[in-house]
Amino acid sequence: MEQKPSSEIPDDSENDLPPWLRGPGVKEEMKDWFRVVVATTERVKEEMSETADHYVGQIEKAESPGKRKTIILCIMAIEQFERNRQFELMRPDPNKTPEETKKEVEDLERKINMMRKNVGLEPKYPVGE
Question: Is 128 part of a structural domain of the chain?
Answer without folding.
Answer: no
